[in-house]
Amino acid sequence: xxxLHTSEITLKVGLDENRVPEELSWSAQxxxxxxxxxxxxxxxxxxxxxKESLKIDLWTKDMPVDEMxxxxxxxxxxxxxxxxKATQDEKMTATMKDFCDYFAEKLELKK
Length: 111
Prior knowledge:
Elements: E1 9-15, E2 21-28, E3 33-38, E4 40-47, E5 52-59, H1 65-87, H2 90-106
Antiparallel strand pairs: 1-2, 2-3, 4-5
Helix pairs in contact: 1-2
């Protein structure tokens, strides 16, 4: 089968002398994104050979804790949406959404 098109997403991490992230940026040419700044990122990939997820979690030194809490909440909501699209498991998706609401309530993200 011939390869019709490839798409590339790039991540750049600027590190300090202790190799702690100071700057994060990403580009996705097909999405019209070029060198956009980010303060945090979570990347997971599935290793089907070993049946395990591999991950990279990075955030910059100046990522505010209150924004990190919002970032995590939004990521959890997004994961529950993705879970639904991937599995069509409505019952577990509802359970995940309930947890997202609980998470937001306990962190006082929603009033």
